[in-house]
Design goal:
Radius of gyration of chain A: 29 Å
Distance between the termini of chain A: 15 Å
Number of domains of chain A: 4
Oligomer: heterodimer
Largest interface: A-B, 52 and 55 residues
Protein name (chain A): Quinol:cytochrome C oxidoreductase
Number of helices of chain A: 34
Number of helices of chain B: 19
CATH architecture of the largest domain in chain A: 2-Layer Sandwich
Helix content of chain A: 25-40%
Pfam families (chain A): Fer4_11
Domain 4Fe-4S ferredoxin-type (chain A): 757-787, 876-905
Number of domains of chain B: 5
InterPro entries (chain A): 4Fe4S_Fe-S-bd, TAT_var_transloc_signal_dom
Organism (chain A): Nonlabens ulvanivorans
Largest sheet of chain B: 2 strands, antiparallel
CATH class of the largest domain in chain A: Alpha Beta
Structural class of chain B: mainly alpha
Order of helices and strands of chain B: HHHHHHHHHHHHHHHEEEHHHH
Number of strands of chain A: 42
Strand order of the largest sheet of chain A: 6-5-17-16-15-7-8
Chain lengths: 1023, 447
């Protein structure tokens, strides 16, 4: 039976003799209170001239002095506007629709502003396309208040003025003498920006625009362009998908810019007794693999062979590839499933290879897949690596007279950055359009400092035909000017970009005010594609593409798969502490990148991972070598990593204009040769110990019945009591459900009137993307604690996404094992039973489970609080009065869900924690409706009390009842995948009431009798 | 002998000072008559109109934009009838827009001079009415009461030296007292010496009956000591408790503000609704200190206070209201001569009076709009406050108490419809307090 399946979070848990894990499971806090640090030092104690009596006197005196000082309150000033803008009401939030387009992430969003400062990003649910924000987009509001941004334009590295810069650059542009003016930019996908670059071209004779994606998609772009004539990417909507086969494409994560998870999640919820079937062939363990029904760890070379085999089975052509029997069988089954699902099937490919991408397009065309949209492609990747390489050559030859760099940092991210730097020296005029002094800006003569996107105008054609508009949500904080404004000026125009954009959008069919309010409009002209790209695209016939794949050979060493993490992405926001501290959904590691390696390879190389006494994870270092590139990284043993492959995350190791605390990890871009994410490398163990800040073992829940899952057949045909049984206890020798009032120790309150909030978390819809974690950070002023504190299990995330591995493929064998278990320990103990499971390194199944305060109606934390700081509200929320808390931490000890977080330190205004809450600029992101907690108090999820109260107040002000769907929390708003739903169960018609009565509904640790107000929906696998 | 002489001169000085003080005070106390220059009384009808009727009409229709002797939104109207042709004035006043539209050169010139601010049309005014108004505006400007004004000025001047004079007097008095005490000692010791020299016994104490001092008796009565000790302890505990509980409670806090703003005049005398200025109290958690553009809605035309108000300010509160209005103009950059904003603004740093700690969440809209509570319930008789002060203690006990005692009006808010229905079934029409609806829960105010 599914519910008895056993889960583990770390391979260390599988070792029954591991004392550390046992200790961690028994203790709420990994580390004891560090009294020994100062009391244990006898020398210091004896040297001290302060006697105990003196000490007490000091204490007494300072207490008295403090109370006396408190008698006189400070004088607080209140400075109103002289002319208050009409739309601003102090204390009320305003929302503006805008668009993020930082070259890596593109989304239509809403920005919540308070008194004129943006404090939170929300999804733009009304947007026509890509209206949902991921974790990085949610965190981007903090990047606005980054103290390391440039504050003025720079001339030769020194702060200067725009007049000087304009004058000097104009003079030098006039001295070009026919040499090329190269404009190297990120993908803007912005029609108006393209038009402005055209203006620049008409002003200066020899202008060349080269688009460069930091993490490019050349293979897919080239294949799409040669097949459909547009440099774009196919769009996918998985909502109606029946069979999804992905070969190395992490489409739930960051593949091709991400954003496909919304439709995917919709297809994964078993409504009408059916759900999509997802097969994943991949090397690294990715979010997609973690969510797949069937996952096969294979090397990239094998992936090519599998794709070739699939192609020959579905489309035709001979593919004489040698696949192992097991894989061959799987490919056969997969091909059958695909052809059975027909137009509701889709094949995806993440191989950085034009041939592979071309075959996938052909397969989808053959399947007549309705999931794929090639007519209106996604335009958010336009870069062409060959064009960039060509530009570097031209710069070296001296034919380039001026170089403008905008939105990219090639000195950091170009694989041969030394060559790029040398080539730059041969260019007479180099101008960087950057908002921070990144590696490239440091080497440029001029930096035309650009504002953050929340201070800028803009338009972005994310998908062809739909233009998202960007508008400033705050006045520019620093003396900055947008790229477009600067280019307009240098092209000899007097127009501001705002006016230009307005006219341009109107001419493209926008009703300006309406479009600005909505954040998008439907364009009546297509995107102006960079015409230079085509010359670098070679077309290949499908047959030769097939033979290319068939003939690909496995390299002798390891195959390295470069990927981007959920947190840092391509590294553009490396100075963002929220993202640095966001645990990776799979490895649960923060503040680091590392080599992921399979258990078997690790054993062969002698790479070790071990947990030390405080739960921290230590790992050996390895050296990864590739044609003269050599980097030393820590190694992390990753269950499910394909043997013979390793993974390294890009985006780390940035140092230029990055605060010291945020200079984490190793820059892996030198491995990213020719923009290809797959490389042949050798790996060598060099020993040593690296300290990871990994939350995977923290707050474990002793292997209790926490995740419940079943398979689709059982779910459809089975009884609720079979796949989702209610725990029972014996009352007078009769088994009684624990929810029965007869066995309840508690008196229940009457919650029938007013609101009673419940939150439902659907384990099927949750992909582990982490957007909710960051949204919670932003909404609730959750502090960042830093790597060392995370390592000590002192992370402050109110909402964590637990990741569980489970090792058995079939439920039957699980049941047998479960029947054999007797207690936790001993020969047949369940802890020991873990050891008998399959080798976890092979291919574990993964489940994600967001856990926050469960808001128990019978809350164990409330009864043990000596000062009643934790109390219950009739609306179902468990309240935490910070000012009442004295920090005994009894509540955390008594919480079965381990969701309470203790403020070990003062995290704001403290130089020891030099993150955003330590400077005035960074503090501007703080939500004024939520208390900033102080040292020594316990905190936890409040179920966004401030938001529910605000919803109620708005209704009272209007004198109306509250409609279903009005109540929301930060996490439920952020969850565009529909995994987190929030509402009032006293509203009998509400969605949440239906979810509460669903067959899949269960409570965490039902048997404890806490009656939580957070409900979970059983995970159903379509295996 | 020399000493005695000195004493006499001191007395003379004191008497002189007291005299001077009283005489200045009496001068200061005189009622000052008007100097603003409204005609003292519309004495007789000049020209063809009735000035008394004209005054009423002027105050009802014209005064919001025109002053007699000073430019406001529109020009000063004193002797306007001599500047323009009367027929032209009739048509201008009844419908200036039509006159401008007709291209009348004079009308267009006036229109342009005043920033093309259109004057309201007054078709309801007959020519007679206009005659009356013009009669009023033609009333000769009264001569400023120079003597009285001079007296006021003098009074102020004396007032300025008043303080220093006072301290001189006090110092002199203190000196005299000290001298007197010294003198007594000298006299006493001289007498004693005389007595000793004459052999008169001065020490009578030995003859007194030896009595136990009362404190000794008290100290020996243990019961009394105990009772008083207990009493003392209790009393000091009571006062200590009171003192400690008032730590951080700023009831009565009335800081000096950068601009002396009188709620008494605005909310009391002029009956301006609280939420006209504190409009965000309806919508938001903050009541909002009004931005200065709200002030200027009225103060563009109210550049000076009425004379009686002015005097009241000077006499009772020691405030020159007109100067305070000038501070507002300086802050907003309003040039009252040009009737235009200069664009140079200087935000005002008000001292915040009602300060809740950050850990408490309070929402004005909840109380004002949803709860329908009058501002005065928490802020006290604001309409009587010349200087705004904190009326309520703003302690948690005070909040809670009100939540316990206040009934919720369930019937008149659509939000409570369902709750009302269910609860009236359950409780049979019994009133519900805020506490019954969860208004005492920690998390409602602390998050």
């Amino acid at each position: 039976m599914a519910t008895t399946k056993k889960y583990w979070k770390s391979t260390a848990q599988l070792d029954e003799s591991n004392e550390i894990v046992k200790n961690l499971e028994q203790n709420e806090f990994a580390a004891p209170i560090p009294t020994e640090e100062f009391l244990g030092n006898n020398e210091v104690m004896e040297e001290s001239s302060t006697t105990r009596r003196d000490f007490l006197k000091y204490v007494g005196f300072s207490t008295a002095a403090a109370s006396l000082a408190a008698c006189e309150g400070p004088v607080i000033y209140s400075v109103p506007y002289v002319n208050q803008p009409e739309q601003i009401i102090p204390g009320m939030a305003n929302y503006y629709a805008t668009t993020i387009a930082d070259g890596y992430d593109f989304a239509s969003i809403l920005v919540k502003t308070r008194e004129g400062r943006p404090i939170k990003i929300e999804s733009n649910k009304d947007a026509k396309y890509r209206g949902h924000a991921n974790a990085r987009v949610h965190a981007s509001v903090l990047s606005l208040y980054d103290n390391n941004r440039l504050k003025t334009p720079l001339v030769k590295g020194a702060e200067s003025t725009w007049e000087t810069l304009d004058k000097e650059v104009a003079q030098k542009l006039n001295e070009l003498n026919g040499k090329t003016l190269a404009v190297l930019t990120q993908t803007f996908a912005s029609p108006s920006t393209m038009a402005i670059i055209e203006m620049l071209k008409s002003k200066y004779s020899n202008v060349r625009h080269v688009t460069y994606d930091t993490v490019g998609e050349d293979g897919a772009l080239n294949a799409f362009e040669s097949k459909y004539g547009v440099r774009g990417l196919a769009d996918y909507d998985f909502t109606d998908a029946e069979t999804i086969v992905s070969i190395g494409a992490d489409f739930v994560g960051n593949w091709q810019g991400g954003g496909f998870d919304k439709g995917y999640s919709a297809s994964r919820v078993p409504s009408n007794k059916s759900m999509s079937h997802h097969v994943q062939f991949e090397s690294n363990m990715t979010l997609s693999g973690a969510n797949a029904d069937l996952r096969y760890p294979v090397t990239p070379t094998e992936q090519k062979h599998i794709l070739a085999a699939l192609y020959s089975k579905l489309v035709g052509g001979a593919a004489n590839v040698s696949l192992s029997d097991k894989v061959a069988k799987v490919v056969e089954q997969t091909a059958q499933k695909l052809s059975k699902a027909g137009s509701k099937a889709v094949v995806l490919c993440g191989l950085p290879d034009q041939a592979a991408q071309q075959l996938v397009l052909a397969i989808n065309e053959k399947l007549n897949s309705s999931i794929v949209d090639t007519a209106a492609p996604i335009m958010t990747r336009q870069g062409n690596r060959l064009a960039v390489d060509q530009l570097v050559k031209e710069m070296q030859s001296g034919s380039v007279g001026a170089l403008f760099v905008a939105g990219v940092d090639p000195i950091y991210s170009y694989d041969n950055s030394d060559a790029f730097a040398k080539a730059m020296e041969k260019v007479a005029l180099t101008v960087s359009f950057a908002s921070r002094e990144d590696s490239t800006a440091q080497k440029c003569d001029y930096v035309a400092t650009t504002p953050h996107y929340l201070e800028s105008w803009g338009d972005t054609e994310i998908k062809k035909g739909i233009v998202s508009l960007a508008q400033p949500t705050i006045r520019p904080i620093f003396d900055t000017r947008q790229l477009q404004d600067t280019l307009l000026k240098w092209s000899g125009s007097d127009q501001s970009y705002k006016d230009y954009l307005k006219l341009y959008s109107k001419s493209n069919g926008a009703s300006w005010s309406q479009a600005l309010q909505d954040g998008f409009f439907t364009s009546n002209v297509g995107l102006q594609v960079d015409e230079n790209a085509s010359e670098f695209v070679a077309s290949v016939s499908d047959n030769s593409a097939l033979s290319q794949l068939v003939n690909s050979k496995k390299p002798s060493g390891f195959e390295l798969i470069l990927y981007t993490k959920t947190g840092l992405g391509d590294g553009a926001q490396a100075n963002n502490p929220w993202l640095q501290e966001l645990p990776d959904p799979i490895t649960r590691t923060t503040w680091d990148n590392y080599v992921t390696i399979s258990q078997i390879d690790a054993e062969q190389l002698g790479v070790e991972n071990e947990n030390v006494a405080n739960g921290g994870l230590n790992g050996s270092y390895v050296v990864v070598k590739m044609n003269g590139v050599e980097r030393k990284l820590p190694a992390l043993i990753q269950p499910g990593q394909a043997q013979g492959t390793i993974g390294i995350a890009l985006g780390y190791g940035k140092t230029a204009s990055i605060q010291a605390e945020m200079q984490t990890g190793v820059n892996a871009y030198p491995f990213f040769k020719s923009g290809s994410s797959i490389q042949a490398v050798t790996v060598e163990n060099v020993g040593g110990e690296h300290e990871f800040a990994c939350t995977q073992l923290q707050n474990t829940m002793m292997g209790r019945d926490i995740i419940r899952e079943t398979d689709l057949t059982t779910y459809i045909n089975g009884d609720k009591h079979e796949f989702n049984p209610m725990p029972e206890v014996s009352l007078n020798h009769i088994e009684t459900p624990v929810t029965s009032p007869d066995v309840d120790l508690w008196t229940s309150f009457d919650r029938s009137t007013g609101h009673h909030f419940n939150m439902s978390i659907d384990l099927n819809a949750c992909t582990g993307c982490g957007a909710c974690v960051i949204a919670c950070h932003a909404e609730n002023n959750v502090p960042v604690v830093g790597k060392q504190e995370v390592r000590k299990s002192r992370d402050m995330h109110w909402l964590r996404i637990d990741r569980y591995y489970s090792s058995t493929d079939s439920f039957e064998s699980d049941e047998d094992k479960k029947d054999g278990f007797e207690g936790l320990f001993g020969d047949n103990g369940s802890l020991g039973g873990f050891g008998e499971l399959e080798n976890p390194a092979d291919n574990p199944q993964v489940a994600f489970q967001p856990v926050m305060c469960q808001h128990c109606n019978h809350a164990p934390c409330e009864t043990v609080c000596p000062v009643a700081a934790s109390s219950h509200g009739r609306q179902g929320q468990n309240h935490m009065a910070y000012n009442r808390c004295v920090g005994t931490r009894y509540c955390a000890n008594n919480c079965p869900y381990k969701v309470r977080r203790f403020n070990w330190f003062l995290y704001n205004g403290n130089d020891e924690f030099d993150y955003h809450m330590n400077n005035d600029l960074g503090r501007m992101v703080i939500n004024p409706d939520v208390t900033v907690r102080s040292r020594g108090v316990m905190e936890k999820c409040s179920m966004c009390m401030q938001m529910t109260q605000m919803t109620i107040l708005e209704a009272k002000k209007d004198g109306r009842m509250i409609k279903d769907g009005e109540f929301a929390t930060a996490c439920s708003n952020a969850c565009s995948n529909g995994a987190i739903k929030f509402g009032d169960i006293n509203d009998k018609e509400s969605e949440i009431t239906k979810l509460k009565n669903s067959d899949r509904m269960y409570h965490l640790l039902e048997e404890v009798g806490t009656e939580p107000n957070v409900i979970y929906q059983v995970k159903v696998r379509n295996a | 002998m020399i000493k005695r002489k000195l004493h006499f001169s001191a007395w003379q000085f004191i008497l002189a000072s007291v005299f001077v003080t009283f005489s200045t005070l009496s001068v200061y106390g005189q009622d000052a008559a008007t100097n603003d220059g409204e005609p003292a009384a519309p004495v007789e009808a000049s020209g063809s109109g009735n000035a008394a009727a004209g005054e009423a009409l002027f105050k009802a229709n014209c005064a919001s934009c025109h002053k007699l002797y000073k430019k406001a939104v529109g020009p000063a109207l004193h002797e306007v009838s001599q500047k323009y042709d009367r027929e032209w004035l009739y048509s201008w006043i009844t419908n200036s827009a039509a006159l401008i539209a007709s291209g009348d050169a004079q009308a267009v010139a006036v229109y342009n001079e005043y920033n093309q601010t259109a004057m309201n049309a007054f078709p309801q005014l007959s020519n007679t009415d206009i005659d009356n108004i013009l009669a009023y505006t033609d009333t000769p400007k009264p001569a400023p009461a120079a003597a009285v004004a001079g007296a006021v000025g003098g009074g102020q001047a004396t007032g300025a030296t008043d303080n220093s004079l006072n301290s001189i007097v006090l110092a002199a008095l203190a000196l005299i007292l000290v001298l007197l005490v010294a003198l007594l000692f000298v006299v006493n010791s001289t007498l004693k010496r005389f007595a000793d020299a004459n052999g008169i016994q001065t020490d009578f104490e030995e003859e007194k009956e030896v009595r136990r001092p009362i404190w000794k008796a008290f100290a020996e009565n243990q019961f009394l000591v105990l009772v008083s000790a207990v009493f003392l302890l209790l009393a000091s505990a009571y006062f200590a408790y009171g003192a400690l509980m008032s730590v951080g409670v700023d009831q009565g806090y009335a800081p000096v503000q950068p601009i002396h703003y009188s709620h008494r005049i605005h909310a009391g005398t002029n009956q301006i609704e609280c939420k006209y200025c504190h409009s965000s109290a309806r919508e938001s958690k903050h009541s909002g200190i009004p931005s200065l553009n709200v002030c200027m809605n009225c103060h563009k035309s109210v550049g000076e206070v009425a004379d009686a108000t002015y005097q009241e300010g000077i006499n009772e509160y020691g405030v020159d209201y007109n100067k305070e209005i000038q501070k507002l103009y300086a802050a907003t950059g309003w040039d009252s001569d040009e009737q235009a904003f200069t664009g140079e603004t200087q935000p005002v740093r008000w001292v915040r009076i009602h300060n809740l700690p950050d850990l408490a969440y309070f929402n004005h809209a909840q109380h004002v709009t949803a709860g329908n509570i009058a501002c005065q319930q928490c802020h006290g008789p604001v309409e009587e406050m010349e200087v705004m002060y904190q009326y309520s203690p703003l302690t948690m006990g005070w909040c809670i108490n009100c939540h316990r005692e206040t009934n919720v009006d369930l019937a008149n808010n659509g939000y409570y419809e369902k709750i009302h229905e269910e609860l009236s079934k359950q409780r049979g029409g019994k009133q519900l307090t805020i506490a019954d609806l969860g208004g005492l829960e920690c998390g409602k105010c602390h998050y």
